[in-house]
Amino acid sequence: MLNNDRILVADDHEIVRMGMLRIIKQLKPQAHLAEVNDYISLYSAISKDNYDLVILDVNMPNGSFQDAVVFIKLKQPSIKILVFSSQDEQIYAVRYLKLGADGYLNKESSSAKIDQALSAMLSTGRYLSDEVRDAMISASLNGPAKSTPIAALSNRELQIANKLVEGIPLKELSNTLNLHASTISTYKNRLFEKLNIKSIPELVEILKLYKE
Fold first, then answer.
1. 80 pairs with which residues across the strands?
2. In this structure, is the dihedral angle defined by the CA atoms of residues 164, 170, 175 and 179, taken in order, positive or negative?
3. pLDDT-based confidence at residue 173 (cuts at 50, 70, 90)
4. Whole-angstrom Cα distance, residue 56 to residue 206?
5. Per-residue pLDDT tens over the stretch 81-116
6. Nearest to 55 by CA among 21, 75, 81
7. Domain boundaries, given as residue ranges, for the chain
8. CATH topology for 6-140?
9. Which end of the chain offers a freer environment for a tag, N or C, measured as fewer CB atoms within 10 Å?
10. Is 27 exposed, middle or buried (0-12, 13-18, 19+ CB in 10 A)?
11. Which band of pLDDT confidence, cut at 50, 70 and 90, is reported for residue 1?
């Protein structure tokens, strides 16, 4: 594996970026590193420089994960995308892979697992934890798992559901996702109908229930 890999870390939390950059520097001292803190700066970085790997947080301001993946792959088809998120990998990893990501790493992972993920992404272009891989194998052998209300949500609906649970107001959510306020309201009403709920507290409870 080359030591001069070009890696871009995209996360809106400075402490997370600093921690990841420090780990990468220890593992790959010669790597060329860059960082951004929102989707707009991500687009700018991808447009200006070539990268081998983007370590991408999903919930950043000024854009959406889906749009970012399309942009990255159009600009640099060979680039690899490692989602770095605190979301439950059992629920989200396969979703993000289907949207175009090449790997998924939970933010609670140890340094050893981060090393494993980076090595896999830069050598094979793919990474999933053993837990997710085993779950996928089990599903392929035993058939799909029992359907849950969450499974019925689209990726955008699930994204908005998590934002609502975080307490983000509709206006701020509209700006973050670059969607009209009325569109956000439509998504909210639709996911409430699918989950058969009427309030945010109910949404919090149902997401807790089906993330266990």
1. 53
2. positive
3. confident
4. 27
5. 999 988 778 777 888 888 899 999 999 888 889 989
6. 81
7. 6-140, 150-211
8. Rossmann fold (3.40.50)
9. C
10. middle
11. very low
Cα atoms in the 13 Å half-sphere on the side-chain side of 31: 26
Residue 1's nearest CA partner among 67, 76, 52 is 52
Classify residue 146 by its DSSP letter: P
Mean pLDDT in residue range 194-205: 83
For residues 127-132, give the mean pLDDT: 85
Q: How confident is the model at residue 209 (pLDDT cuts 50, 70, 90)?
A: low
- Backbone dihedral angles phi then psi of residue 29, each to the nearest 5 degrees: -60, -30
- Alpha-carbon distance of 3 to 6, in angstroms, equals 9
The class of domain 150-211 in CATH terms is mainly alpha
The pTM assigned to this predicted structure is 0.72
Instruction: Give dist(CA 211, CA 91) in Å, integer.
Output: 7
